[in-house]
Amino acid sequence: MRCDISVIIPAYNEAERLGSTLERAVDYLSRRGLSYELLVVDDGSRDQTIQVAEAFAGRGVRVIRHERNRGKGAAIRTGILASQGAEVLLSDADASTPIEELEKLERWLPEAPLVLGSRAVAGADVQRHQPFYRELMGKTFNRIIRIAGVRGLNDTQCGFKLLEGDIAREIGAELTIDGFAYDVELVFLARRHGYRVVEVGVIWVDSPDSRVDPIRSSLGMLRDVVRMRLRHSGKR
Description:
Layout: E1 3-11, H1 15-31, E2 36-43, H2 49-54, E3 61-66, H3 72-82, E4 85-90, H4 102-106, E5 114-118, E6 125-128, H5 132-147, E7 161-164, H6 165-172, H7 182-192, E8 197-201, E9 203-205, H8 216-232
Parallel strand pairs: 1-2, 1-4, 2-3, 5-8, 6-9
Antiparallel strand pairs: 4-7, 5-7
């Protein structure tokens, strides 16, 4: 059923953090009077993530399950393609960016069908920073993606993004990256279709229990960006 907004939350072993994130999101969206769906895409969790999410089933939460762990990008793709909202919000299970920041992104949606929450532009409020080596990893990765052709953006990796719904599903059908570099492909494809992409500063609080391995994830993201460019080269 069509609704105002679909909120997609990829989750892998998030039983401890997911409940409070869903409670806050349900409360906020209800207070705004929006029709909504919260799509929790469980990416092969081995803990009680599914049970936590299903406890909200009567409050607008729907659970989609991957039988095995496939990666954050795969979970995002599954959620986008299952969504029905006029808007689609991508948000992390740890709520590093509070759901209330949605309104900052919504102001830009009439002008840009892909709005990126950002930790690196005016208006950003990083209330707890990542360890220095993670921040260095992020800066290095941003330089790499500029070389790969995604230029003019300061922070593609913040997990809080808003899209116009039909455009989200159009681009979602073309996404191929299963890992953390899905953000880069999302931006690359949006621009290839001629859609404007903007960054908006948001509140962000680092979660100590990150799923990103500094070395393995960085190498995987680099590999995926190179493969993405080769895969999409020549396409129109």
